[in-house]
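During the reporting period, we have paired protein sequences with backbone structure tokens. One record among many follows, to show the layout:
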Amino acid sequence: MGRFVLFFVFLLLLSAGSACRKETAASSNVSIDPSQTNAERVEDVDILYSDSAVVRVRVRGPVMLNFIGYSDPHQEFTDGIRVEFFDRSGYVTSVLTARYAIRYETRGLTIIRDKVLWKSVEGRTLETPELTWDERQQKIYSPKFAVVTSPTDTVYTHGFEATQDFKMVQMKAIDGSMRMEENAQPPAKPLNPS
């Protein structure tokens, strides 16, 4: 009987030891991508931004990755983005779409890439492969090629800078035609003082 108890205790210790053993062979094949940690995945994103209790911007996207816990937290729209801009009365004034966007919270920068298209209700459009929105300076700019159209004109430019509402636009290396008002006044303050 003593041998049986001793054998039973030995088996119990052996099985307990094997249950707590670390499986090095299986765990050696596991790799963790540090860029994918501390990330929240949100699907069917619909975000409203308001100013003084008035909705000004609506952001939608199929997927948003929210990277938190970094010195420069950011949100990434990997499967496309649609941004609607509203006036004070709640009417859509323009829509921006693209296949990719990333917003850096700390820097106040949003970079939008791949088939960027902005359309206003007045019939103006802007097409470019990439643009950057600087929230702090309230400017939108791109060094890339862009096509700007209105109901009467088409302009090709290699780089532009605009106020975030697109009311003042400064184009660089222009090709195309556009109408100018006879009494048009230059802006009182340049967009990019240098």
In short: DSSP finds two helices and twelve strands in the chain. The longest strand covers residues 54-67. The chain has one domain: 35-177. Residues 2-19 form the longest helix (18 residues).
